[in-house]
Design a protein that fits this description.
The structure is a single chain. This protein is an alpha/beta fold and 248 residues long. Helix content is 33%, strand content 25%. Strand 8 and strand 9 form a beta hairpin. Helix 4 crosses helix 5. The two termini are 29 Å apart.
Length: 248
């Protein structure tokens, strides 16, 4: 039986008087890549932040490995949307990647050679080792995305939340990122990825969470990513789906 990593029960989230998520019930199992799919405003980023304890929710319960988030936070890596990052921050690529080691350090404890090695390995896997001394604001969008994924790798987490990692990146970067994601899943890690390009869902994800303020469907991609479910999530945008060749 697959290990349940995330268990969400009856989760509802509001911002002021606006309800963003309603009665979400969801189980995420270990070792899979989940595509979190839905239209703008569906609550995908909100779901991430609620699970991670970054925002309060109205109702419901969330556990990770049957524990509260604060007990397991070291095991979780989060890559936010790029517009949530201050790119003027005076830090180099390596500075940012090494932040992935901070959860394992005591107050005032210094980084060591092992931390340096892990950072270099992560940067090398994502093809940015040659950029390690560059200030993050000097990088292209694709390079910036690789830096924050490298930080997550450096953390050696068991669970990864990636919020739109493919937005604003070139084809080479997208290919590099998806290869890293699949390698992590092969190593038994669990990944949730907010994604917008419906044409690549079948190739990229083992499982899909279809969301539009409510949970439309969740499960194996081949069973869940159907014309009917996508239509329910996107409000019947069948013209778009037909153009993408999704007739299932």
């Amino acid at each position: 039986m697959d290990q349940v990593v995330i268990d969400v029960k009856s989760l509802s989230v509001s911002f002021g008087i606006k309800r963003v998520l309603t009665n979400i019930n969801l189980e995420v199992v270990a070792g899979s890549v989940y595509g979190v799919i839905g239209p703008n405003g569906a609550g995908k980023s909100t779901l991430f932040k609620a699970i991670l304890g970054l925002i309060e929710f109205d109702l419901g319960d969330v556990t990770l490995w049957d524990k509260d988030i604060e007990e397991v936070r070291k095991r979780i890596a989060y890559v936010p949307q790029k517009d949530e990052v201050d790119w003027t921050f005076p830090a180099t690529v390596k500075d940012i990647v090494l932040m992935g080691r901070y959860p394992f350090k005591k107050v005032f404890q210094r980084l060591n050679k092992e931390d340096d090695r892990l950072a270099d390995e992560a940067m090398d896997e994502l093809g940015i080792l040659n950029l390690k001394n560059r200030q993050i604001g000097q990088l292209s969008g694709g390079q910036q995305q690789r830096v924050f994924l490298a930080r997550a790798l450096c953390q050696q987490a068991d669970l990864y939340f990636l919020d739109e990692p493919f937005v604003g990146v070139d084809i080479a970067t997208e290919d590099k990122i998806i290869k890293t994601i699949k390698r992590l899943a092969k190593d038994g890690k669990t990944l949730l990825v907010v994604h917008h390009d419906l044409s690549t869902v079948n190739d990229y994800f083992d499982k899909v969470i279809l969301l539009n303020q409510r949970l439309v469907a969740c499960g194996d991609t081949e069973k869940v990513f159907t014309n009917k479910n996508i239509s329910n999530a996107y409000g019947g945008q069948l013209t778009l789906l037909n153009k993408l060749g999704i007739n299932r």
